[in-house]
Amino acid sequence: MSDKSITSFTNIPSSLQNEMSLIISNAFTESQKTSKELYTEKLKLITSAKDMSTAEKLTAMNDSYSTWYQQNWQNVCCLCIIVLSTTVGVPIAIKAVRKVLVA
C-alpha cells in the first residue's frame, strides 16, 4: 500500500467531523425547537382550561416548565456525549483501520 493512499485516508476525519458537527447541530436545534413548541402548546392548554383553579393552573405551569427545563438539559447532555464519542472514537477507529491497512 502506498503512502499516498494512507495520506488521503487521514484527511477523512476532518471532513467527517465537519459533517457530524453539522448533523449534530441541526439535530440539537431541532430538538430545542420541538421542546419549545410543546411547552408553548401546553401553556396554551393550561391557560385555556376552564375546569382548573388558579392554583392548579400555576402548579401545572410549573410542572410544564420543569419538564421543558429537564428536556433542555437532556438535549445538552446527549449533545456532549455524541460530540465526545465522535472526537474520541473516530480517531481511535481510524488508527485501528490504518494499522490493518499498513500490516
Explained architecture:
By secondary structure, this protein is mainly α. The chain is 91% helix and 0% strand. α2 (12-48) runs antiparallel to α3 (54-102). It is rod-shaped, with a radius of gyration of 23 Å. The N and C termini lie close together (9 Å).
Key descriptive features of the protein:
103 residues; mainly alpha; 91% helix; rod-shaped
In short:
The chain is an all-alpha fold. It is 91% helix and 0% strand.
Supply the number of helical segments: 3
Return the average pLDDT rounded to an integer. Answer: 79
How would the global form be characterised?
rod-shaped
Report the order of strands and helices. Answer: HHH
Rg (CA only): 23 Å
Q: Approximately how much beta-strand content do the residues carry?
A: under 5%
* Low-confidence blocks of residues: 5-10
Main β-sheet, in a few words?
none
| Helix residue percentage | over 70%
Ends distance: 9 Å
Q: Total strand count, please?
A: 0
Q: Layout of helices and strands, plus pairs?
A:
Blueprint: H1 3-10, H2 12-48, H3 54-102
